[in-house]
Fold:
Amino acid sequence: MILLILVTLLWAFSFSLIGVYLAGQVDSYFSVLTRVLLATLAFLPFLNWRTPPRTALTLMAIGAVQLGLMYLFYYQSFLLLSVPEVLLFTIFTPVYIALIYDLLARKFSLWNLLIAAIAVIGAAVIRWDNLSDSYWRGFLVVQGANLCFATGQVAYRQFMQSETKRGNSLPPRQTFGWFFIGASIVASVAWLILGKPQYPTGSVQWGVLVWLGAIASGLGYFLWNKGATQVSPGTLAAMNNALIPAGLLVNLLIWNRDADLPRLATGGAIIVAAVLISEWRNKHRRI
Structure:
C-alpha cells in the first residue's frame, strides 16, 4: 500500500507536465519513445539476461500493452482534451480491472455497462455546450489508455503470483527491464510509422522528458507493479483513482486556474458517483 501511495504522489505532476510542456509542441510518438527508452536504460544494468524465455516474453507482452499501447493512447488524448478532462476520464480504470477479473473468472455482468453509461453522462455535463467529435474521440482515446493500463496491472499481478507459486520467480528488479523492452518495441514501431519531425526545442522540454522517462516511468512503474502484487484486487482498483484528486489539485492550483470549476465539479461528481456505485456493488458481492 505504501508503494502505491508513493507512486501516486510521484505521478501527480505528470499529467500537467505533459499537457503544458509537450502536448502539441513535441511529437507525441517521439515523446512516448523517449520516455520508454529512458525507463529501459534505467533498468538494463539490473536485467538478468538468463531469464527463462517464457518469463521474458510474458513480461515483454505485458509491458507492450500496459506501457507501450497505453502511452500511445494517453499522449494522443492531450491533443483532444484539457488536462482536467484527461484526469477525470481516467477514473474508469477500476471498472475495467473489475471487468477483467470477471472475464478471467468466466463471468459477465451488465452492471459495468450501466456504470459506463452513467459516466458518459458525467462526461457530457463537463462540456455540454461543446460536444464536438474531437471531444468524444478524446474520451474514447482515454478509455483505450485505461483499458491497456488495467489489463497490464491484472496480467502482471496474476503472472508474478503464479511464478511465485511455481518457485520460478526472480527478483523483480532483475526482470522488469523486459517489461520496458516490450514497451520500447511498440513505441519504436509507432514512431517509425506515424512519427513527425517535431522534437523538443529547449532544455525545459528535454528536462521534462528525462524526468518522465527515468523517474515517473522507470521508477514509478516498477514500484507500482510491485505494489500491485502486495494488495488485494479491490485495493488496487481503488488506488488507481487516488491519482485523480492529486493530479487535479496540482493542475488547477498551478497551471489551470481559469477552468470552469462548477461544470467540472458537477460532471466529475457524476463520474465519481458511477465508480463509487461500482465499488459498493463489488464489496456487496464479496460479502
Q: What stands out?
A: The first helix runs from residue 2 to 11. The chain has a mean pLDDT of 82.
